[in-house]
Amino acid sequence: MTFSGLGRPFKICHMTWTTMRITGVSKPRWRKAATAPGCRFLCVTPADPPLTGERYRVSRLPFSRVTAQDLNFFQQELPGRVVTDEEDLKSHNIDWLRTVRGNSKVLLRPQNTHEVSEILRYCNERNLAVTPQGGNTGLVGGSVPVFDEILISTALMDQVISFDDVSGALVCQAGCVLETLNQYLEGQGYTMPLDLGAKGSCHIGGNLATNAGGLRLLRYGSLRGTVLGLEAVLPDGSILNCLNSLRKDNTGYDLKQLFIGSEGTLGVITSVSILCPRKPSAVNVALLGCESFDRVLQVFTLCRDHLGEILSAFEFFDASCMKLVQKHLHLNNPLPANAFYVLIETSGSSTQHDEEKLNDFLVSAMDAGLTASGTVATDQSKIKSIWALRERITEALAHDGYVYKYDLSMPVDKLYALVEETRARLGSTAKTVVGYGHLGDGNLHLNVTAESHTDTVLAALEPFVYEWTAQHRGSISAEHGLGFKKKDHIYYSKSREAVQLMQKIKYMLDPKGIMNPYKTIPTADQ
Ligand code: FAD
Ligand code: MLT
Ligand code: ZN
Predict the structure, then answer these.
(1) Which part of the chain is the FAD-binding PCMH-type domain (predicted)?
(2) Is the dihedral of CA 99, 100, 106, 107 positive or negative?
(3) Residue 455 to residues 450, 458, 468, 518: CA-CA distances in angstroms?
(4) How much is the pLDDT for 118?
């Protein structure tokens, strides 16, 4: 059993990173790539994916096509902010995973709610379909058009409107980048209640629209709890103002919840009010190696017992993930090779108290033989290096080949059995089959890579993965949403009655179906 650089018992605050093998980790390349057209990540990939309509054999619905007159209208409304150049549009037509491709001919860049309202009012009258787009980091093909839907980007809606440093309520426009908001808040002693690997590119409006979970849901809960209010423009151009900043408000239906997780199908979220916690002054991160998934589960139980209120993340990933980040991103594993890795983060307000608790927990985990090796970091740059091993798995997978991505929730004791069964089922058809995720939330990311997209691999995976998940009473989308790719699988997780009610709500708000068509909710006749 080895804990790098330390004998037992040890004091976390005395650990020196020089005894470990991690060296500096560069800023994830995809962060830039996800926002900048023609950037490194997008350029190194050889071919564009086929058009979505062709690969998935979808028929275009009878929406109007954009005319010169329409472009004139948009130019008048948004002078200099109407993009029609094919090269400039390219990165907005392809998703982050490079698995779907639309053919939009125009992208609009409004700066405020009024402009979004004018655009939607016009598009609704003209029967022009639209796709709202934030940072385009969505993983289910929801953020790019399927055909020629007009793209409405929130990139220029990036202003903080107000911040109350007593209550922690932040009000901002929907296009604020998550990481930028976090930096803004940190200057005032606060932090965002969510964090995810795409933070450098994703917009807060996109986070709400997908109801993103991320790495600290365990601590701060879901956006359904932390979002205090929002403003959205409905498909007919009317503005729904639910932008309050109250902790408590039981006056009628909670309409904001309809838009959280609606994936651009009910309207465009234009502003957000969100409750932010104080920035923790003491943060520790531990990376542990475990010999089996059973041990990972035991570490989780022990960890909750010992760390209780200071636990802020409990993530796991398997040996194949570690190999991928080493191979494609040249990250260093500070531990000897293990079958599984657990990343534990604590955040609190007392360094000494938190370190003592973490120390006790680690000693207990080692005494019980639950972990074979481990390392602890307390300073910011080292913490980042450990987090990179987990956060950048998504990026490493994208380097490995075509990614078949599944985002499932189910009882934690079942999580890894699905990965093992999938691996056995696919054999050499797949390049890599990996499992990682937010174990503390019962959320597994099962990912399979192959040289390319083939119907054979897809048929081996679906409906197998969905049926397996449904049999274990899980959800086929824990946090990424349904978008284009998972829409028709909604019935594995929701009843016919529930889907019918969703269809009625969609029809009530968007009778012409112009908002992000072909996404999230199956059409009523299915
Ligand atoms: P986009 O990708 O642009 O859009 C996503 C969806 O929301 C689309 O349907 C779009 O039409 C809609 N939309 C966007 N903005 C608006 C708006 N203002 N109004 C209405 N609809 C809108 N997700 C997690 O849950 N947890 C994670 O840990 C996580 N990690 C990730 C790590 C990486 C490296 C990547 C690439 C993605 C990750 N994701 C994760 C996926 C996640 O959904 C997104 O990163 C993020 O929430 C989407 O924000 P975005 O601004 O990029 O939205
Ligand atoms: C993550 O947890 O890393 C994200 O949800 C992205 C992914 O699933 O790859
Ligand atoms: Zn995730």
Answers:
(1) 100-279
(2) negative
(3) 12, 5, 20, 21
(4) 98
Q: Which residues, 6+ apart, have CB-to-CB distance to 188 below 8 Å?
A: 163, 165
As a whole number of Å, the end-to-end CA separation of the chain is: 56
The residues with which 82 forms a beta bridge, in sequence order, are 108
Substitution site in 143, 194, 329, 518 for ligand 1 pocket (most atoms within 8 Å of beta carbon):
143
Class of domain 15-32+280-393: alpha beta
Residues of the chain with CATH 3.30.70.2740: 401-493
Q: Taking a C-beta distance cutoff of 8 angstroms, is the pair 396, 327 a contact? A: yes
* CATH class of the domain comprising 401-493: alpha beta
Q: What angle do CA 325, 327, 330 make, to 5 degrees?
A: 70
Q: What one-letter code names the amino acid at 331?
A: L
What is the best residue among 30, 98, 139 to mutate for testing ligand 2's pocket, by most ligand atoms within 8 Å of CB? Answer: 139
Q: 212 C-alpha vs ligand 3 centroid, how far in Å?
A: 8
What is residue 188's predicted lDDT score, i.e. its pLDDT? Answer: 97
Ligand nearest to the CA of 137: 1
Query: 209: how many CB neighbours lie within 10 A of its CB?
Result: 31
- State if residue 131 touches ligand 1 by the CB under 6 angstroms criterion: yes
**From the CB of residue 432, how many other CB atoms can be counted at a distance below 10 Å?**
20
- CATH 3.30.465.10 domain range(s) in the chain: 160-275
pLDDT < 70 stretches in the chain: 1-46, 525-526
Distances in Å between the Cα of 474 and the Cα atoms of 296, 491, 493 are 20, 12, 7
Residues 175 and 157: beta-carbon distance below 8 Å: yes
For 52-153, CATH gives: 3.30.43.10
Predicted pLDDT at 372:
87
Burial label, 282 (beta-carbon count in 10 A; 0-12, 13-18, 19+): middle
- pLDDT tens for 281-337 read 999 999 999 999 999 999 999 999 999 999 999 999 999 999 999 999 999 999 999
Is the separation of the CB atoms in 295 and 287 below 8 Å?
no
| CATH class of the region 160-275 | alpha beta
- CATH 3.30.43.10 intervals, the chain: 52-153
Ligand 1 atom at minimum distance from 95 CA? 2
